[in-house]
Amino acid sequence: MKDFNIVLTGVGGQGILTLQKIISEAAMKQGYDVKASELHGLAQRGGHIECHVRIGKKIHSSLVRQGNADLIIALEPLEGLRATYYASKQKTIFLLNTYEIIPLSVYIGEGKYPSMDKILDNIKDFSKKIFSINASEIVKRTTGSIISTNIYMLGYAVAENIIPIKKEFVLDGMKKVIKKKYFEMNKKVFELRENQIKRKNLYFKK
Amino acid sequence: MRNEILKKKGKILLLGNEAIVRGALESGVGLASTYPGTPSSEIGDTFSEIAKKAGIYFEYSANEKVALEVAAGAAFSGIKSIVSMKHFGLNVAADSLMPVAYVGGSPLVVVSADDPSCWSSAQSEQDNRYYARLAHIPCVEPSNPEEAKELTKFAFKISEKYEIPVLLRTTTRVSHTRGIVKLDKLPKRKTKGKFIKDMKKFNNLPPHTMEMHEKILEKIEKIRKLSEKTKFNFILNKNVRSKIGIIVSGVSYNYVIDSLDQLNLKLPVLKIGLTYPLPTEKIKRFIRNKKEVLIVEELEPLMEKEVTRIAKEINPKLKVHGKDILPKSGEFNIETVMKAIMKISKKKFDFNFDAHKKNFEKLKIPRRIPVFCPGCPHRATFLAVKKAAPPGTIFGGDIGCYILGIFPPFETQDFNLSMGANVSVIHGINKVSNQKTIAFLGDSTFFHAGMPAIANLVFNKSNTLVIILDNRYTSMTGHQENPGTGYTGMGDKTTPIRIEDVVKAMGVKNVKVVDPFNIKLMIKTIKKFLKKNELSVIVAKRECQLMAVRRMRYFGVEPDKYEIDQKKCKQCKSCLNNIGCPAINEIDGRIFIDKNLCTGCGVCASICPNGAIKKVKKK
To answer: Which of A97, B1, B293, B594 has the fewest beta carbons closer than 10 A?
Structure first.
């Protein structure tokens, strides 16, 4: 496999770091070399968080080059738009959660939060394909809280086969990274999309 | 998860910082100390988690200077020691670094985590490789986690053999890169030593000091010989015949490899891991037959200057590129390095970086300024300060989460320099102007550098107000323990130092402890103290809400939630505009509280002029 470049983005508190750790552990289990970048500190306090994960045979830099992302998982639409820096029409697939978190700069009149249509329109210029889903809503309906949105998104990527990591390894990674107490619940969230696809296939078969 | 670091063998994923810890363990480290500071924090935090299990001593010290001295003391007693800090932490510790280097304090590794691009640094973007040159101590620079582990071991070896402290300099993108690290054997650790008296060795006193200076210069020349032959200074693509060569250190090595790969180009690369003292002869051989050489190093052109000097001797026609085509500030990435290599190699690439960047900038995406977390006690304190302080009051800001007070809607920070600095700057302003002044400090900052500053306020009769935001942790860097928390870095109980007792003992007469969530009392106290013509201190004491909520959730308790009664709300937006809480949102002209984010501090309810915000009744 050629190097596969992933950018994970969202707002502090959405679980981007957890997602990165799971993907990194899973990729290693599957036999890939991995390099991932994290940012800590000031960046975490409600600011935007961006992690890069690069997997492949031999990886050097932990940063994804401008325009060179294969997959961008955005837990927040505006941050998805910001990640277009790493995206290009030729190769990038976007997985976008449409749950908006309005930045303070918008409230104090510094800028405008673009409409969802505009965001998707703009991302289109920088991507090969977009999956836009209201993941937080789905997760909230299922678990009563939006906390596991990150895991749902990862499950979505695996079920749709847009990330080159197998489910069994991701579950291994989750077992390692997520507290035991929360694992079963997260596993269910992780499998939501997979089960939905299975049901759909069953329906069409009939 | 961090316990994995004690595994006997295998391959595991480690952050660069964690790899440094593993490297220290594989070297047989006996003592580790630190003052937390991003991007170095995970070194101390990892030691904190595993110290007991590993059978070594670890502490969060009161500041970086103290941390270095603690490590030096252990090294003087023959115990392998490591001390870690962020780049400007070394400014604080520098006072002791110089004499510790002179007396040959070893085995001692000093880790400085620099932060090009200032991802988590307010003070400066300084390049601490200068400190190695200033103190005449060797400097190693890893480029990835695997190398971070290996170079830590190498640093201990140099330190022990040559009786000299060694600077291990990382940068954010090494410290915070996760990568696969192969584990080697963990030796038996020596944790009990003995200080053997040697007046001549350990005492700095002229004229002996000058002898020591000469001795350390000799040591560095000896280590230069090691620099010539170490495997950490190696040439990649050695057999490629090219008139162009690249010399690189630190994280930039990865960008060079990736650039060459993507450009489908092969050039000889001299990668330097022991960057001070530089391998002069090796560099001579590398540049002898070259026409052009590109030096890839972030921040200061340190290697570039030395290579330029060496070239004059051996190959005066050589074109030495570096800061002429690479940025002098900010971190590098693949595209910056790729562009530089394209420039000197005349190689083309089918992706237009500049056009892409232009298209991206056209999107005009609103920025996401960092804000106080929902329920942060600092927000409540600053809200009270805004309401209580007369217009024109000068606010001295400091280093910690409360630095976010600089942003709207608070803007309660007129300047900010280094830890504890603002108290004395405020004192200076106080002595020459008639303006009202408030100095802010955090709890950890108080113990770090605030105490001498407050002693000076008492001593020299200042009449300012100091507000100490005591949230019970060193929060910004990841909730580490400090002298006020009552626990050590190894998790043992200790005497918690109460800030209010300290300032009282120092002679401050007006001292009051106030819970920041009691906004009315806070406003009243600030007003009262500002009227006094003498020094006063408010300790705004409440635990960091992140930790409070984390603990509640651990026990299965959800924090209180507030909601807005839409019938009573007149959309005056005073909650939205005055407290900047991420949980309060405007949707189609109406104001809502996001229950996913609300942690129940109730600050919004206490300032709503229409009484429209109420606690949600628990079912």
So the answer is: B1
Q: How many CA atoms are closer than 13 Å to the CA of B22, on its beta-carbon side?
A: 30
Cis geometry, peptide bond prior to residue B301 (ω within 30 degrees of 0) = no
Question: Minimal Cα distance from B478: which residue of A?
Answer: A41
Domains and CATH numbers, chain B: 2-187+204-229 (3.40.50.970), 233-361 (3.40.50.920), 377-550 (3.40.50.970), 560-615 (3.30.70.20)
Helix-strand-coil split of chain B, %, nearest 5: 40, 20, 40
What's the pLDDT band for B486 if we cut at 50, 70, 90?
Answer: very high
Q: Tokens standing for A164? A: 């080159």
Those residues with Cβ within 8 angstroms of residue B312's Cβ, 6 or more apart along the chain or in another chain: none
Hey, what amino acid is at B266? K
C-alpha closest to that of B110 among B26, B170, B176: B170
Strands B31-34 and B57-60: parallel
Q: How many CB atoms lie within 10 A of CB B63?
A: 20
B237 neighbors B266 (Cβ within 8 angstroms): yes
Q: State both tokens at B217.
A: 């210069």
> What domains are there in chain A, each with its CATH number?
4-205 (3.40.920.10)
CB pair distance less than 8 Å for A34 and B41:
no
Radius of gyration of chain A (CA): 17
> Going edge to edge, which strands form the sheet with B394-396?
B394-396, B437-442, B465-470, B536-541, B510-514
Asked whether the beta carbons of residue A43 and residue B120 sit closer than 8 angstroms, the reply is yes
Crossing angle (nearest 10°) for helices B145-162 and B208-229 = 130
Judging contacts by C-beta atoms under 8 Å, the chain B residues touching residue A36 are: 177-179
Residue B294: its H or E element:
strand B292-296
The number of C-alpha atoms within 13 Å of B314 and in the hemisphere containing its C-beta is 19
Q: What is the DSSP letter of A122?
A: H
Q: Is the ipTM of this complex over 0.90?
A: yes
A200: CB partners within 8 A, 6+ apart: none
Task: State the pLDDT at residue B577.
Answer: 86
Chain A residue numbers with beta carbons less than 8 Å from the beta carbon of B335 are 65-66
CB B134 within 8 A of CB B107: no
Q: pLDDT tens for residues A1-45?
A: 789 999 999 998 899 999 999 999 999 999 999 999 987 655 556
Distance CA A20, CA A173 (A): 10
Q: Which of B402, B352, B358 is nearest to B377 (CA)?
A: B402
Task: State whether B254 and A60 contact (CB < 8 Å).
Answer: yes
Which amino acid is it at B384? A
Confidence of residue B619 (pLDDT cuts 50, 70, 90): low
With beta carbons less than 8 A apart as the criterion, state whether B297 and B252 touch: yes
Looking at the partner chain, which of A41, A66, A126 has a beta carbon nearest the beta carbon of B353?
A66
> What is the layout of strands, in order, in the sheet containing B292-296?
B233-236, B269-272, B244-249, B292-296, B319-321
Alpha-carbon gap, residue B418 to B506, rounded angstroms: 23
Average pLDDT, whole number, for chain B?
96
Any residues with CB less than 8 A from the CB of A5 and at least 6 apart, and which?
A52, A53, A54, A64, A65, A68, A69, A70, A71, A86
CA distance B169 to B167: 6
Residue type, A167: K
Note if the pTM is more than 0.90. yes
Alpha helices (H) along A30-129? 77-82, 104-107, 116-124
Candidates B278, B225, B229; CA nearest to B249 is B278
The distance in angstroms from the start CA to the end CA of chain A is 37
